[in-house]
């Protein structure tokens, strides 16, 4: 008449291993004891078996055993798994963040980088430590500071290597109609230029009155002339040169080009495809 007896292990609490979200938990399978003839059916388990990798949270384990009279004995216990966490980090403005594991658990590593035209300041990587504090210092992305006081055109271009694409617009005079129309179209497409990490460089005039301009920064005439000579840009006609992030001359134009055509070409570059994936994850886009 009495149900069989079965005793479960005590409540277990475990902490996940570094850089993991689970922990392996083992125990001895409990044996049931009958109060009459000692003959029992198999012990039935409800829940994860011993030796399993338990994820974070509370897990109910139940063992059930029956005697020949179908009396039932039950025991229960819980396995609690805790993941030690440092708290979530955020990607810096104008930057990206890539984390291992769950992103904030003990042992996780987060690596930071900036979009083209911005330079990383602070720690490039941070680790969630055993004291539940992040290593290093908070990173930020500062706007790229172009030095136009360099001595050579090669030194100027090196500043953009692996950071920005260049669209070099050259004209013998600021009154050139193609130059004025092209500049107007590029100004209206500024968001698309920024999204594709394009810096516009203007070369206006003929030496010695040649002026080179990158945003608000003015290049010395000798440096602007060097840039024209290095990239073999014509002196006496309107033209444009598209240079990729590795300093390669990708396309040349001798007449107006619509920004959409320029963007379509750049979007075929392998590196640009990787950028597009990251930008989609961050929600970076242009409305128009």
UniProtKB/TrEMBL annotation:
Example GO BP: phagolysosome assembly
Keyword annotations from UniProtKB, A to Z: Disulfide bond, Repeat, Signal, Sushi
Record keyword RNA-binding present: no
Residues covered by the Sushi domain: 84-143
Cysteine pairings via disulfide bonds: 114-141
HYR domain residues: 1-83
Protein name (database record): Sushi repeat-containing protein SRPX
Organism, scientific name: Leptonychotes weddellii
Gene name linked to the record: LOC102732207
